[in-house]
Amino acid sequence: MSALNKLLKLNIACLIVVISGCTMPGHRQVIEESGFYLYIQSPSERIKKSIRFNPQKTKLIYLPEKVSIELLATDENGKRSLDIKTSKEIIVYSYKLNGRKAYFGIEEQQWFATLIPIIINKTGLENTSH
Q1: Would residue 123 be called left, alpha or beta, if left means φ above 0 and alpha means ψ between -120 and 50 degrees?
Q2: How confident is the model at residue 1 (pLDDT cuts 50, 70, 90)?
Q3: What is the DSSP letter of 88?
Q4: Which H or E element spans position 3?
Q5: What is the pLDDT of residue 128?
Q6: Mean pLDDT across the chain, nearest whole number?
Q7: CA 109, CA 98: separation in Å to the nearest integer?
């Protein structure tokens, strides 16, 4: 009977963890396809929808505070990852190539620019700048 009680308590604890994960505040969106992973975390869907790109769909121009974007993509150069956050109203890019921190220079910005139309399309974010 003691083993049965332990198993029951373990099942209840697992259920609580699962339920709490489903009811966490905020909005999350995940897009996962072959060679492409996008995760956006925001305090709300309304705030997420205020993310803005330039009219040419080549640059992120506004990312609200407390919103983060994680992007992973694999191409001929390897596995690229980009974490984007805002710090004191400045968009901060943390870029890695094949797991190693790398400079987010012009070539890397051009790579990100090629993914922006895909991001807009997959997430339903509007491409307006207001």
Answers
A1: alpha
A2: low
A3: T
A4: helix 2-22
A5: 45
A6: 85
A7: 17
**DSSP three-state, residue 121:** helix
Q: How many C-beta neighbours within 10 Å does residue 64 have?
A: 17
Question: pLDDT confidence of 129, banded at 50, 70, 90?
Answer: very low
- Give the chain's length: 130
DSSP letter for each residue of 37-87: EEEEEES-HHHHTT-EE-TTSS-EEE--TT-EEEEEEEETTEEEEEEEEEE
Note whether 83 and 112 are within 8 A (CB): no
Distance CA 74, CA 79 (A): 4
**pTM (2 d.p.):** 0.76
Which of 62, 65, 95 shows the shortest CA–CA distance to 78? 95
Contact 50, 44 (CB under 8 A): no
The answer to whether the CB of 112 falls within 8 A of the CB of 35 is: no
More confident residue, 30 or 25: 30
